Each structure stands twice: as structure tokens, then as C-alpha cells.
Amino acid sequence: MIIFGTKGYLYQLAILTLVCGRCGNPAAHTLRKRVTKFTLFFVPLFPISTKYATQCTFCGAEQKVTREQADQLPAQGAGPGTDQPYGRPQQQPHQH
Ligand SMILES: [Zn+2]
User: Fold this and answer.
1) Cβ count within 10 A of residue 43
2) In what order do the strands lie in the sheet with 4-19?
3) What whole-number distance in Å separates Cα of residue 41 and Cα of residue 26?
């Protein structure tokens, strides 16, 4: 008899200050990675899927992000310009 299944792991990667797409507050968001691993006889063998999401600590809204976004978000949040709107195009100053 073979016993197999999946097991989920949740990693908190960073806490970022982002403008929430739902409540509109510049609130702290947790950046999380969820890894689902295939298990055989309760031993995790290899990851099946890896998903990234941010969650607003203010209203609890969760937003899925791609791996590329997850890689870039901490760089944005750690820099000096942390008040950049999240998910909106950045406006370039016009030179006259
Ligand atoms: Zn929110």
C-alpha cells in the first residue's frame, strides 16, 4: 500500500508598505510564499506548486502576485521611496 498526498508550507518573506487595492490604505502587507509539496509516506519529496501573495494587514485582502513581482516588491519596499503607489504607473516628471 502506498500512502501519498500533499503538504502545504507557508513562508513569510517580507513585510511591505503598499497601498492596498481594496481599502486604499498605505498599510503593511505581508509577502507570503505558499509551497505545496508532494509527500510519499508522509515524507515531503518535491514541490508541486509555488504561489506568492500579498495580504493587507489592515483589511485582510489577499492579492496573488507572480514570482517576478514577489522578487521585485521587497526591493521597492526597502528603498527610500516607500510611498510609491502600488500597482499604478509611475509618473515621470516633465522637463520644460
Ligand atoms: Zn487593505
Assistant:
1) 11
2) 4-19, 26-40, 43-56, 62-65
3) 45
CATH no. for residue 37?
2.20.25
Ligand 1 midpoint to CA 84 (Å): 16
Total domains in the chain come to: 1
Q: Using a CB cutoff of 5 Å, list residues around ligand 1, an ion.
A: 20, 22-23, 56, 58-59, 61
Which pTM does this prediction carry? 0.68
Cell readout for 31 is 509577502
pLDDT tens-digit series, residues 33-80: 999 999 999 999 999 999 999 999 999 999 999 999 999 887 765 545
Domain that holds residue 40: 11-79
- Domain annotation covers residue 59: yes
Residue 87 Ramachandran class (φ > 0 left, ψ -120 to 50 alpha, else beta): left
